[in-house]
Specification:
This protein has about 400 residues and is an alpha/beta fold. About 40% of the residues lie in helices and about 10% in strands.
C-alpha cells in the first residue's frame, strides 16, 4: 500500500492487514494519531509487515508499543521528522536490518535506547542511520559518543555525521581520535571544575564560618532586634526607654551559686543603703516570658550591666549569653563597653589565666576585684557605685 504524498492527516486501525508487507505513508501529516497510539492499536494487525515508511510526517515522538505486533519488520524509515528520542520497542524484531532516523533532531540516544539497539545489533545485525541530526559533541554527551565509536560498524554513513555546534573540533571522519581527545579534554576540565568547585566551596565556607564565629553574638543580637522591631518578640507593658532614662540602675548577671552573695551583700549595699534599683532575675523576671526576652528587656532597660564573675559563672552557657549580649548591647546601642562592669571574685582573679571573653573589658578597666579582706569592703562598694552612676 502506497499512500505517500497526500494530505492524509488521520490513520486509523485496519481491521485486517495480516498479509500486508509494505506500507508507505511518507509525506503526509499523520503525526497526531501515531504520537497518541500508546497501546499500538493502529498497527495491531500488521503482523507480516516488512517495510514501513513514515518519513516526512512532522512526527515529534513515537510511543513504545507502536509496533508491538510487527516483529517481521526489516526496514523502518522515520527520517525527516522532528524526533529527538527513540522509544519504540524493536527488541523482538529479529529481522530488522535498517532503521533510518536521518534528518531528525537527535542530539544523543538515551541509555535505554542504546541498550535496546545493542541487543538488536547482536540479534539482527541492525544498521542505524542518524545522519543530518546535529549530534551533541560535548562532555555531557561523551558516553553516547564513546558507545557510538564502539559500535561504529552499525551506523550508516557515520563519516558524514555532524555536530550540533559548528565550532566543535569533533570530527566523525576520525572518530577514534576525536573521542579520545574529547575524553582527555572532559577529564581535565572535569577535574578542574571539581577542584575549583570544592576549593571555592571550602574557601567560602571557611570565610563565612570565621565571620559567623567572630560575630556570632552581634548576629544573634541583630536578629533579636529585628524580631523585636517587627513584633515577633513577646510584648511588654511599656516601650524600651531612651538612653537618658532607665527603669533600673543595673542589670545583675550572676550564677545560681552566687545567689546568697546577691541577697546578703549586693542588695543591702546597693538597694537598701544607696537606693539603687537593681534588676535581679530571681526576683524581677515576669512569669510566662522566655528567658531570652526577659534578659534582653533587662539589658535594654538598665543603665549598666554588672556581672559577678565566679568559676561557675564562666562555666555557664547562659551566663556566657548574658555577658556577650551585654557587651553587644553596650557597643551597638550605647556606643561603648562602659555599659558592662565585671566583679571578679578572688577565685577568678587569683587564677593563672583569665578567660578571653573577659579580656576586652579588663583592657578597658571595666572590672573591679572583690577584696579578700573585710577591711576593704567599703572601698569596693563605693568604687562599684561610682562606676554604676557614671
Amino acid at each position: 500500500m502506497d499512500m505517500s504524498n497526500n494530505f492524509c492527516s488521520r490513520m486509523v486501525r485496519l481491521l485486517d492487514a495480516k498479509s500486508m508487507k509494505h506500507l508507505n505513508f511518507s509525506h503526509n501529516d499523520i503525526s497526531q494519531d501515531l504520537e497518541g497510539d500508546s497501546t499500538g492499536e493502529i498497527f495491531n494487525t500488521f503482523t507480516s509487515l516488512e517495510v514501513l515508511d513514515i518519513s516526512s510526517n512532522r512526527i515529534v515522538s513515537l510511543p513504545k508499543l507502536l509496533l508491538r505486533n510487527s516483529n517481521e519488520l526489516r526496514y523502518i524509515d522515520a527520517s525527516n521528522n522532528g524526533l529527538s528520542e527513540w522509544l519504540v520497542d524493536v527488541s523482538k524484531m529479529s529481522n530488522l536490518k535498517l532503521l533510518d532516523l536521518s534528518e531528525n533532531k537527535f542530539a544523543t540516544l538515551s541509555s535505554h535506547a542504546r541498550q535496546q539497539f545493542g541487543h538488536a545489533f547482536q540479534l539482527s545485525n541492525l544498521t542505524i542511520d542518524i545522519s543530518r541530526n546535529g549530534i551533541a559533541c560535548t562532555c555531557e554527551n561523551q558516553d553516547f559518543l564513546v558507545w557510538m565509536h564502539e559500535n561504529k560498524n552499525y551506523f550508516l554513513h557515520i563519516e558524514n555525521y555532524t555536530c550540533s555546534t559548528t565550532d566543535s573540533m569533533f570530527d566523525f571522519k576520525s572518530l577514534e581520535s576525536s573521542v579520545h581527545n574529547l575524553q582527555k579534554q572532559c577529564k581535565s576540565f572535569l577535574g578542574w571544575y571539581i577542584g575549583c568547585s570544592v576549593t571555592s566551596a571550602i574557601f567560602v565556607t571557611f570565610i563565612i564560618s570565621i565571620i559567623v564565629i567572630k560575630n556570632k553574638w552581634k548576629i544573634r543580637y541583630l536578629i533579636y532586634k529585628s524580631k523585636q522591631k517587627f513584633g515577633f518578640v513577646t510584648p511588654f507593658n511599656r516601650c524600651i526607654p531612651d538612653t537618658m532614662h532607665y527603669d533600673y540602675d543595673a542589670f545583675l548577671s550572676y550564677s545560681g551559686q552566687e545567689l546568697m552573695f546577691v541577697l546578703k551583700q549586693v542588695i543591702p549595699r546597693l538597694e537598701v543603703n544607696k537606693k539603687l534599683r537593681l534588676l535581679i532575675r530571681d526576683r524581677d523576671y515576669l512569669p510566662g516570658i522566655s528567658k531570652v526576652d526577659s534578659t534582653m528587656k533587662g539589658l535594654q532597660e538598665s543603665r549598666r550591666t554588672v556581672c559577678i564573675v565566679s568559676k561557675k559563672y564562666l562555666e555557664s552557657k547562659w551566663r556566657d549569653y548574658e555577658l556577650n549580649m551585654a557587651k553587644v548591647e553596650g557597643i551597638e546601642d550605647r556606643g561603648s563597653l562602659d555599659y558592662v562592669i565585671l566583679i571578679l571574685l578572688p577565685e577568678v582573679y587569683n587564677g593563672k589565666n583569665l578567660p578571653k571573653t573577659l579580656m576586652d573589658l579588663i583592657r578597658k578597666e571595666r572590672y573591679i576585684e572583690y577584696p579578700m579582706e573585710s577591711c576593704a569592703y567599703d572601698d569596693f562598694w563605693d568604687r562599684l557605685i561610682r562606676m554604676i552612676e557614671q
